[in-house]
Amino acid sequence: ICIFLIHLSNVVITFLFYIYLSRIMGANNFGFYFFIVTLITTLAIFSKNGLDLLVIRFIPKYIVKNKYNKLIGITKYVNDRAIKNCMIIFTIYVSIIFLLNQFSPIENISIYFIGILFLPILTLLQLNQAKLNGFKEIILSQLPERIILPLSIIIFVYFLSIIFGIKLNSLNILYIHLLTLFIVYFISNFWLNREINKYSFVEKPIYLHKEWESISKNLILITVGHMIFTNIDVLMIGVILDKENSGIYGIASRISVFIAFGLFAINTVIAPQISKLYSENNINRLKLLLLTSSRYNLIFTILFFVLIIYFNLEILNIFGIEFSRGSTALIILCAGQLVNVITGSVGVLMTMTGLELYAARIIIFSIILNIILNLILIPFFGIEGAAVATTFTVSISNILMLYYSIRETGINASPLRLSN
Fold this sequence. Notes:
- The protein has helices spanning about 1-50, 50-65, 70-105, 110-115, 120-135, 140-165, 170-195, 210-240, 245-255, 260-280, 285-310, 310-315, 325-340, 345-350, 355-410.
- By secondary structure, it is mainly alpha-helical.
């Protein structure tokens, strides 16, 4: 219940923030800010390289089996790998921006350089979140990024724009966002160190480099697939059409997430539980956990689905009259989120039970399909085409994962199954 309320609060706070920004900045400035944040969030997937899912899966397993040397080893290993990944991505990113600017001057090029500074701190913050999740400190894992971060940004924006009368643009907001990221990172680091210090008696960490690296390669594909479904359409609209359409579609996309936010909250809680129960071979309890959580979530999903579909124009108009152009795209995206919920916590089930290879293959297929459909549909149908591409890809991916998880484990994550 606490995690559900945290996720609900995050969605409400985030949308209040988006409403406020879109009104004081306008669609164009807001579109640039939204585009850069989406771009860096997408790059963070590659800097994490599946390491966040790796610690969520193995920390509970090592605790259950009293393998504390490996536990400390994996917490240090993921940070070292993430820093190296950030350095590689930073070099490639800056080189590409400079090269593109030589051929054709990039509008507001400074925001691209400010944005890349987000990458290392965002990566380490999200790894801290995953580690706290693995230690079963679920609430502490979610508070920094989902509550403290957006609230801090809102407070800074309010004081600068209202109290000091500073006119905000995309560059100002990026500086504020970067400052608050540092703040929440140090908070999460403090909480994480309290958990790690419980195992300070471990004299020598054990590092399973080959095993962890092999598994993380499959997990990165799963994570990339998830972010492609939530971000690549926004980026492709920004490139193929313009940043204004990207911002309008981005708002529609975030509204549609309301339908599945209960699933995201549940996945956060049950991921380490799935790893623990599967490691203990407690399959019956695992089935009951998935059945109960998925059916409760379906009730909330149907409620939000009906409300958003019925009041879609009124919701979009809150952000400004120009955002009503995202109405049709919003309805299409909601259908995709409904399919996502109906298939249950299938992605988490696969990654926590050693089926990451099957999931990775499905994701590779889905990535290719999603990009192809976006390239075909966006030029002809605009943001509605992107919505169709994303909805179709999400549906196919989740259905395939449901099929293979049932076939390989005998566990059905869907709330619509006829038996346990």
